[in-house]
Amino acid sequence: MWKEFVSKLRLDDWQPEIISFAETSDGEVLDGLIRDKNGGAFLIIEGGILDLLDDSIADWNRRDSFLDRYSKQCTALNVASTQCHRQSMIETAEANSDNTEKIDQREHHDQEAPVYDKNLSDTPFAISSDDVLMNYWIDRVEKSTTVVDLGCGTGRRSIQVLQKSNCDLIGIEISYEMVLRARCKCRMHGLLKRVNFCVGDAETNSFRNEIADIVTVTGVLHHVEEPQRVLTTVYQLLKDDGFLLSIENNKSGFRFLFDWLQELIPAWNEKAGKHHVISCDDITRWLRQSGDFYLERFRYHVFLPPHVFNFIGTNKACKLMRWSDKLGNLLIQKHAGLIITEARKAGLTPRNV
């Protein structure tokens, strides 16, 4: 599994080898390294998760702890001395870094990971929203062979996609604690053989071009400084005629009501970036800046506060979500809480954005 996954990484001029320090019961690498045979460069695999973060935004406490835990093996591979050199480099990089916002997002989601599913993913609101969303996307998901879940969090979207298709999936998330939970849930559902998870930055593509039929981007753009860079990553990852499926906070005239209610009775702990709400025009502009995309459609979703759905329980929430979406799209379409984007990387089909 790791060998095939490594072949998809953008490791220019590397001659990669996979080194195992600890393995699962079926022989897969749980802890180890991907090392360049030609030099001292390496990537850490910890808990079955590959660390692809740039040095300037990485969790160095975690990296150092890993290297200390396997100090004998690392010394034998001449990795420890390389690490000392890299540590001095990262201290210099951090002193001059403009990545403060990314580090804050990583740390925030690491802290929120233990309660994230309870506060959001497992709530009647999230379950009822997913019921509608996957109904929109099911035809494309079922036909896909490789899906990238960019900003996979604790695996909410990843598990849905894997359960509804025979695809292989790559989950990318800036928070190790989040993606660790995604991997654990996939193991519980018996899905690990079809998924690889990594800690990575959505604004920087660490993979070879054109590896995915679908890239899902769920609630990511409103967390980042430069959303068009995320969409550039999406464009690079997609095969020709591959699909971007995205959902984001809508810049609605009623948004202030949700923000007020969220401050009064927080449904979950949100840390949005400067683009905390996003319009169709914003997405269209970013798609145009990012590559040759064909915009298929915008959909509008969620016309009532999440608190309402959470109050009435899952079964009633699913019925209410479907009913309120139909009515809302008839009466106040563009004032929905969420905006769904479906776009295709232009291949045989010319662009229209």
Kindly identify the CATH topology of the largest domain: Rossmann fold
Coarse morphology = globular
Put simply, the count of helices is: 13
Secondary structure class reads alpha/beta
Which CATH architecture of the largest domain? 3-Layer(aba) Sandwich
Distance, first to last CA? 38 Å
Indicate how many domains the architecture comprises. Answer: 2
H/E element sequence: HEEEEHHHHHEHEHEEHEHHEHHE
As laid out across the biggest beta sheet, the strand order is 1-2-3-4-7-6-5-8-9-11-10
| Sequence stretches where pLDDT stays below 50 over 5 or more residues | none
CATH class term of the largest domain: Alpha Beta
Could you walk me through the main structural features you see in this protein, from its secondary elements to its overall organization?
45% of the residues lie in helices and 22% in strands. It is an alpha/beta fold and 353 residues long. It has two domains: 2-47 and 55-98, no CATH class; 104-345, 3-Layer(aba) Sandwich (Rossmann fold). It has an eleven-stranded mixed beta sheet, with helices on both faces. The radius of gyration is 21 Å and the shape is globular. The two termini are 38 Å apart.
